[in-house]
Design brief:
The protein has 733 residues and is of the alpha/beta class. The protein has 24 helices and 15 strands. The protein has helices at 2-20, 29-45, 54-63, 69-88, 103-106, 125-131, 133-140, 151-163, 202-213, 236-241, 252-264, 305-309, 315-343, 347-355, 363-371, 377-402, 433-449, 461-469, 499-514, 539-553, 561-568, 576-594, 649-660, 690-694; strands spanning 143-147, 173-177, 219-222, 244-247, 269-275, 278-284, 603-608, 613-618, 625-628, 631-633, 639-642, 664-669, 672-675, 702-709, 719-727.
Length: 733
């Protein structure tokens, strides 16, 4: 009945407008009654004779002269997708009426005085007609933290500007952050940016563009990532100043971290995301709903290790292999190299320790890297050429040595049958652009991590040809190493080192020291962090060339640079229609959060504009965990204990028992166990002060601890408790 009732109300509004040449006046009872009569007469003409919903008609009459920008954005996203369907013939078109109502927003406003909705002669009159002046003022005075200025972030800022968020005279501020720079590929869906903004910070540019929409907006912009490393910037004090946090990210770990900060500081969070034509919104409200971290998406299906290493069957496999090679060669190994030499500052000390029989973790691989370290551009090019031979020729020859083409399994079937593809060695051809591309990009990356300078002349074809023509490429020597064929096997964490390898390490290190090639400058590398959006850094060039060479080796259809970048960079496809719809729905939930609406008013949404489908669900009610004897807690509860300078761990445990009626049996700070009775020496800690146990920094006012309690029955697990915030001194209030 509800859709038909909405349809009848809309038809009544159309008839009213046609008959009187205007829309109903705001709060006019006479116009409302006239519209209701029209609705009743229309209902009688319809076959199903639907019952007229008087409340819907009256609210439609009251808000007919209003305009709710976020609702227009949501409906505009849907309508735009329908236009695209008509133009492209792609996806299923909508063959019926579609209504999106926000009665959840207006119904709680019924008891407000009618003057609340009357115009004041400013830009917010149309908004005021829908939600009233009091709620408008709350939006103006709002402090909101927006994380991410990508596609959804840009649309959110437009909604903020039209709603007047953060425009209050004395209160209100929009804080935004995004560490990324604007790329050309962003311009087709991040509509606050223009071509002349390319390579400028997203947050600063978005802030500037938003002010052209609403100059009264107060906005602070930053270029920080939001992660544990930025806790000094985005401290608990920062979060407590925010009324709402809105995330517009595709990084799941970052979203989980932000959610944890919102829960810790009792702040509402509105999360959203899109993937192509799909989108979702989720509202997290303190004490009313579950949090983002309360549920987990199923883990992504990983490509089996043996498939990546030896038996790729699709271009996605070769791209992931190339991405792994990039991480291993230019990020992971250099980082381990630096960490090792930070622990053991001199090569002479390491040599002495090895000779004395001491086992140093990672020692063999570090010494191997040191002994083979390129020290000139020529050596970087030679190393790249050797890697070409190893990856794309020797690897194929080794596999065919281990499993000749006529190899059969125990059941008599051929080993090399679908999905396994036999590899064929690739012969290096300098004139082949793919081969040259790998050589050049690999040499540049090796030069970067090994801190070897190079010039533009060094990058010329003439220079590279001269270098590789003069070098001797190692010949293939078959090995008897076992090739992993089990798809359930995982990549080993540590590769065992033989005694012969250890002896070689000693010899290589002695040689490096004698040759003055183990100096302080030699014990440093420059790890590279993968960055997909900077075309000048050669990261995607290397991965594209390496992936397509491996694909050629296995007779797999190659991928162009754009597809490789999308897969290697895990770029989530975005379309402007979905981002507009999602951001509009987020802004509508924001209005409810600001208005302090009850739990049943909030709605999460999942949509797919291709089908099209929009599903609204009520938010999940927060779960309550029982400890015992009627004592319980939710994720939003935090117990507090105020101490003093000589407050001991025993005082803390007694304070929890006296205040909350249950005695902790275990106290943990992060991953550090402060008190576990069964651990040796922990009973003695009861007499130590909390200051000595926790060792807070000078400016630290409190610490968040985790406590648990003894089970009612022996043998069962300890009962979990809520976080306990321990203040080192009693606060004034």
């Amino acid at each position: 009945q509800a859709p038909l009732q909405t349809h009848v109300a809309m038809l009544a509004l159309n008839h009213f407008q046609e008959n009187l040449g205007r829309t109903p006046n705001i709060g006019c009872l006479q116009d409302s009654e006239e519209m209701l009569k029209i609705a009743v007469s229309i209902s009688e003409t319809l076959e199903s004779n639907p019952q007229v919903n008087g409340e819907t008609v009256r609210w439609l009459s009251r808000t007919a002269q209003g305009f709710l920008a976020p609702l227009a954005a949501a409906m505009g996203g849907v309508a735009s997708q329908e236009v695209l369907k008509a133009v492209t013939g792609k996806f299923s078109p909508l063959q019926q009426w579609l209504y999106i109502d926000m009665l959840d927003i207006v119904t709680p406003l019924e008891k407000m005085d009618s003057e609340e909705f009357l115009p004041r002669g400013d830009r917010y009159d149309a908004l005021r007609a829908c939600i009233g002046d009091s709620l408008c003022q709350k939006l103006h005075d709002l402090n909101v933290f927006l994380v991410g200025c990508g596609a959804i972030g840009c649309e959110m800022l437009k909604n903020f500007a039209l709603l007047g968020v953060g425009t209050g005279q004395d209160k209100g501020l929009v804080t935004i952050t995004d560490p990324d720079l604007i790329e050309k590929s962003n311009l087709n869906r991040q509509f606050l940016f223009r071509p002349h903004h390319i390579q400028k910070p997203k947050s600063y540019t978005a802030a500037e563009a938003t002010l052209t929409i609403n100059p009264c907006l107060k906005i602070d912009s930053y270029i920080n990532k939001v992660c544990p490393a930025t806790e000094n910037t985005y401290s608990d004090e920062f979060y407590t100043k925010q009324d709402v946090i809105v995330t517009a990210l595709d990084n799941v770990e970052a979203r989980r971290y932000i959610d944890s900060r919102c829960v810790a500081n009792l702040r509402p969070l509105i999360d959203s995301g899109t993937m192509g034509t799909k989108g979702h919104t989720e509202v997290v409200v303190p004490h009313l709903t579950e949090s983002y971290n309360s549920h987990r998406d199923p883990p992504e299906e990983e490509i089996p290790f043996c498939t990546l290493k030896s038996f790729p069957a699709a271009i996605e496999h070769t791209i992931q292999w190339a991405r792994d090679k990039f991480e291993s060669s230019f990020s992971h190994k250099p980082a381990l190299f630096n960490k090792f030499w930070q622990t053991y500052p001199s090569a002479e000390e390491v040599l002495q320790r090895i000779k004395s029989g001491e086992s140093l973790e990672g020692c063999f691989h570090v010494i191997k890297t040191l002994s083979r370290r390129p020290r000139s551009w020529t050596q970087c090019v030679e190393l790249a050429r050797v890697k070409f031979e190893k990856y794309f020729s020797h690897k194929a020859l080794q596999l065919l040595h281990s499993f000749p083409l006529d190899t059969r399994l125990k059941d008599g079937s051929l080993f090399w049958q679908s999905p396994k593809r036999p590899p064929f060695p690739v012969k290096f051809e300098f004139s082949d652009p793919l081969h040259f591309g790998f050589l050049l990009s690999a040499a540049k990356l090796f030069a970067t991590v090994y801190c070897v300078p190079f010039t533009e002349k060094d990058l010329s074809e003439e220079t590279l040809l001269k270098i590789i023509s003069a070098m001797k490429v190692p010949e293939f020597r078959p090995s008897n190493k076992i090739v992993q064929t089990d798809e359930s096997a995982r990549k080993p964490d540590h590769i065992p080192v033989s005694s012969e390898d250890e002896r070689n390490a000693v010899f290589q290190l002695e040689k490096s020291i004698m040759s003055n090639e183990a100096l302080e400058s030699d014990l440093q590398m420059k790890p590279i962090s993968f960055e997909k959006d900077d075309d000048s850094n050669g990261h995607i060039d290397f991965i594209t060339a390496a992936s397509n060479l491996r694909a050629k080796m296995y007779n797999i259809e190659p991928a162009d640079r754009f597809k490789t970048k999308r897969i290697a960079g895990k770029i989530i496809p975005a379309i402007a229609t979905a981002t507009a719809a999602v951001s509009g729905l987020v802004a509508l939930e924001l209005i409810k959060v600001v208005g302090g609406y009850p739990a049943d008013a909030y709605k999460n949404c999942f949509l797919n504009l291709a089908i099209p489908i929009m599903v609204f669900t009520e938010t999940a009610e927060v779960r309550r965990t029982e400890i015992r004897n009627g004592i319980s807690f939710t994720i939003w509860d935090r117990w507090t204990v105020y101490g003093k300078e000589d407050f001991t761990l025993l005082d803390f445990i007694n304070a929890v028992r006296e205040k909350y009626g249950i005695e902790p049996t275990m106290v943990v700070q992060g991953v550090k166990m402060l008190y576990v009775p069964v651990m040796p020496g922990h009973i003695k800690r009861l007499k130590l002060t909390m200051q000595k146990l926790v060792k807070p920094s000078a400016d630290k006012k409190y610490v968040d601890l985790t406590v648990s309690f003894a089970p009612e029955t022996d043998g069962e697990e300890d009962l979990p408790g809520p976080p306990v915030r321990y203040y080192f001194v009693q606060e004034d209030n």
